[in-house]
Amino acid sequence: MDKNGQAKSRREGENSNLSSATTRYGCIPDSISSPDPEETTTVISPERAYLTVAILCYVNLINYMDRYTIAGVLLSIQNFFEITDSKAGLLQTVFICSFIVLAPVVGFLGDRYNRKLIMIAGLTVWVATTLTSSFVTKSYFWLLLLFRALVGTGEASYATIAPTIIGDLFSGTKRTVMISAFYIFIPVGSGLGYIIGSYVASATGDWRWALRLNPILGSFGLLMLAVFCPNPSRGASDAHGTNHMKNTPYLEDIKYLLKNKSFVWSSLGVTAMAFLTGALAFWTPTFLIRAQIHQGVQPPCTVQPCDTSNSYIFGVVTVFTGILGVSLGSTISRRLRYRVANADPLICAVGMLSSAPFFFAAIILASTSIPATYVFIGIGETLLSLNWSILADILLYVVVPTRRATAEALQIMVIHLLGDAGSPYLIGSISDILSRYQPDTHEWNFRTLQYSFLLCPFIGVLGGLFFIMTALYITKDRREAELLSTGACVPVQTASKPGPPHS
Predict the structure, then answer these.
(1) pTM here?
(2) CA end-to-end span of the chain, whole Å?
(3) What pLDDT digit, counting tens, does each position of 464-488 carry?
(4) Is residue 328 part of a domain?
(5) What is the maximum span of the chain, computed from C-alpha positions, in angstroms?
(6) What 3-state class would DSSP assign to 260?
(7) Bridge-partner residues for 490, per DSSP?
(8) Rg (CA), the chain
(9) Domain that holds residue 449
(10) N or C: which end of the chain has fewer CB within 10 A?
(11) Collapsing DSSP states into helix, strand and coil, what is residue 426?
(12) In this structure, are residues 449 and 283 in contact, taking their beta carbons and an 8 Å threshold?
């Protein structure tokens, strides 16, 4: 084919994509739309943009440290309050449930109003409730549950909005790198939560001091966020900006997202991943302690605080494998993205599918060899961590900038509602049910949790299949999002119904 023929073919392809976007999302050519006169664009220096990402990464680190500090001292909490496995699992479930309820509200506000102020308000509530929860006395376990639920306010306001701010500060490869840097602190923060929580509990002799460090560190991050972080214009980093785009009614945003097959399938994939990681992250240290008691390696816990060496080791493994996995996933994505159009969801599928047999082996081997269990857990966590930064990047490039906070919120609601909100409680409930069928011995106490854990690898396989489905649609959906963002095509509602001004 000659050059003229190739150019004609490209034009026909673009026209086809434009026609598809027009049909699917109800959009019109940009030539008849008008910019929102109330939206302003502020020029942000590269130095300030990098500083903003550093601050957001720090807060993300503290956020995940706080989430898994509870898991690091869970056995001490169970003995202190004298609660069953299912009630212990509720500590994570109520936290995630508040996250689920508040995330859509924050997403709606985040696409329309000042994102920085929303994050500051949510994090202030988080710092206050986390600190207060550490003073709950033995007879008020329900109050600890209430405070853990309120802690979800901070994460809802932060996790929903922070990735969209990074997406508006950087584009292309730089965006991928910055998103990777942000998401690498999920496993790092989780691991440090186990490490620091168990260390502080051992050093002070009181598990409650483990909950008091995070609010102090979080207060510093809150101050830095208030002083140094900007509130960039939505879509500021995209090729042609998005001044031609205005906010649309919330129901229209939801309809747009539900028609976006890449968003839907990738959300289901990350839901399976959340179920798997939520269950493993919350119960693994306790599971390993029970395995050692079953093997006779260590005695049962009778004195507070309980032994936290497994929490410490599991934390180190989580930090190391998280850094390795996220770095590998980001590197592979950057190298393959321009050669394989659907490389990102395929990497996620490989990570999920290949991690399942390693987690299965780790669960089975726990009864005979703790070192071998750690090896297989490490390999499984590395493969699973390939996905963290890639998943965030997928959402940013298949959804238009003015709907990204809503997309983050909807995805967060789904993944936690069907994922890690219920998985710790479900694993604990299955363990409690199984415990009724045999006398209460150290071996059966271990076996009930082991059999409950076997559900996780099968959920991992299901997640891999969801990402394969994402790979079938992602090229088309990404192109249509680009057309909408650059102004080749804009939503009908943009031209006809103005929304509230951006802050």
Answers:
(1) 0.66
(2) 50
(3) 999 999 999 998 888 888 887 665 5
(4) yes
(5) 81
(6) coil
(7) 28
(8) 23
(9) 45-233+249-493
(10) N
(11) helix
(12) yes
